Amino acid sequence: MLAQLKRLGGDSLLYALMNVGTKLIAFIMFPIYTHFLPNPADFGVLDYIDRYAAMLTFVVIFGTDSALAFYYFDTKDEEKRKVYVQNVMVFRIAMVAALFLLVLLGGSWLSEKLLDNPSLVHLLYLSIGVLFLDTVTALVLTVLRYEFKTLKVVIFTVLKMLLIAVLSYLLLQFYFASIESILLGRVISAAVVLLLVGKYAIKYIRFTFTKPVIRELLKYAAPLVPASVAFWVISNSNVLFLKEYASFTEVGLYGTAIKFASLITLLTSGVQMAWRPYSMSIKEKKDSPILFSKLYIGILLLGTFGVMFVATIMPWVIQLLGDQYYEAYKYVAPVSAVTFLNFYYMIISVGIFFTKQTKYISYAFGIAAIINIALNFFLIPVLGIWGTVLSYMLSYVIAVIFIFIKSQKAYYVPVSSGKMIFLFANMLVAVASIIYVQENDLSWIYIALAWVYFLVTLLLSRVDRDFRRKPSQAAEV
Questions:
Q1: Cβ(253)–Cβ(328) under 8 Å?
Q2: Which residue of 22, 234, 356, 375 has the fewest CB atoms within a 10 Å radius of its CB?
């Protein structure tokens, strides 16, 4: 038992360090990219390609990651495990091949429709090349993870990010300052890493197609696809609308805000990885509902303070990117609030996971995706980037409220939903006030007043009572 706990703790720490390391590398490269791509429209094209690549990754995987995890550990037969992996590999490569054929046939027409320029078709070919190489490598690393070869997974993952950073910089500096250099750096880096994992990959690259195995895998995987698609729609559809109703300049500015907002995941990723096993391990304890209530409020407070801090400092931070990207600062804090909600729903959904009612997660984000698309139609033509931000936020707020209600019905945690909404809503009011002050170049005193307002509402909510609550007070909310 002790050895297993040590393995869990050690592996969790390594993966947390890997996540933080890769995110830091990506963030450090961001100002370098904007230096070589001073026009936000150019960065907008890159961001647009990356979002489509993310969607295609969902298509290629098609839920087979979860299916493979189940069947890989469901059998102890090494040969059967190999057959499962080989069939997943064949399925994913076939999906990539189909997408490549689509790009090959569509060619300039696709480039015109997606990128507003038929001469940029070579960028689509490069992105498909990255997708193919990453598809093979990702599956090999997944198997290594299943075999608890954690250090190898971490080394190969971080190495790939470092190679992308170094090669992209060298190509931008000495070859050509364009999106092509960045994508070419990704292709070369992915190819190098694939060669390094080649000895592990070789036994799984077999063009064998076992019909019963594929049917078994897809039967498990298919129901998971809608949730993945919904997540992608909420996160990315607004950018597609923004490009159609505005331009790649607006896409670039919004993408810049997203990059800065994603920094919040440096703080949440470790908690996110540890939360599920931790919450499951204490669910049967007598005082767990009270403990969960304190954690719900405590983590929400940390999140609201974090977003307020981001809103306050962002105009000075974003100056690092130059004047052409400066406008993006005002969107960073609201998008950071949504990024926090994307993490927070996992915290407040313990009841759903305790009772295995995970279908409600798919329902919530499926509904939110539909609402998101509808809001994009109405808000983006009128409000531009602010319409994108609002549709993104409202979709997540609806999904999180739905998930919280269902979780409470399954496993009651004595915490006031009204108080939680009050805290989050007043944080948004304070953030909006700070952005208004910054936009109109008013005195910093008004920013201080926004903070005072936020702190006063915090005191009025009497969150101190939540932290002082005792087990006997579980029903007193």
A1: yes
A2: 356
Pick from 17-21, 119-123, 221-225, 334-338 the range whose average pLDDT is largest.
334-338
Instruction: Determine the Cα–Cα distance for residues 390 and 334; give it in Å rounded to an integer.
Output: 8
- For CA atoms 407, 412, 418, 424, give the dihedral sign: negative
pLDDT in tens, 117-161: 888 889 899 999 999 998 888 888 888 877 777 788 888 888 888
Question: Which of 374, 405, 407 minimizes the C-alpha distance to 391?
Answer: 374
Cα(84)–Cα(77) distance, integer angstroms: 11
What single string gives the DSSP state of each residue in 269-314? Answer: HHHHHHHHHHHHHHTTSTTHHHHHHHHHHHHHHHHHHHHHHHHHHH
Confidence at residue 266, expressed as pLDDT on a 0 to 100 scale:
66
Instruction: Please name the residue that has the structure tokens 């470092």.
Output: 162
d(CA 34, CA 318) in angstroms, rounded, equals: 11
Question: C-alpha distances in angstroms, 319 versus 180, 241, 281, 383?
Answer: 26, 27, 45, 24
Q: Which of 330, 27, 23, 345 is nearest to 157 (CA)?
A: 23
Structural contact between residues 59 and 92, judged by C-beta atoms closer than 8 angstroms: no
Residue 44 has, within 13 A of its CA and on its CB side, a CA count of 24
Lowest mean pLDDT among 195-199, 225-229, 233-237, 409-413: 225-229
Which residues fall within 8 angstroms of residue 96, CB to CB, at 6 or more apart? 60, 128, 131, 132, 135
**DSSP of 4-60:** HHHHHHHHHHHHHHHHHHHHHHHHHHHHHHHHH--SHHHHHHHHHHHHHHHHHHHHH
Query: Do residues 243 and 44 touch, judged by C-beta distance below 8 A?
Result: yes
Identify the residue whose tokens are 């027409």: 109
Per-position b or e across 350-377, b if 16+ CB within 10 A of its CB = bbbbbeebeebbbbbbbebbebbbebbe
Residue position matching structure tokens 């300049």:
249
Question: Is the CA virtual torsion 237, 239, 242, 244 positive or negative?
Answer: negative
245's tokens: 């109703």
Cα separations in angstroms, 321 against 31, 37, 46, 266, 437: 6, 10, 16, 21, 22
Q: Tell me, yes or no, if the pTM score tops 0.70.
A: yes
For residue 322, give Cα distances in angstroms to 247, 315, 382. Answer: 20, 11, 27
d(CA 33, CA 182): 8
The residues near 259 (Cβ < 8 Å, ≥ 6 apart) are: 27, 30
Residues 90, 209 contacting (CB under 8 angstroms): yes
Radius of gyration of the chain (CA): 23
Amino acid occupying residue 106? G
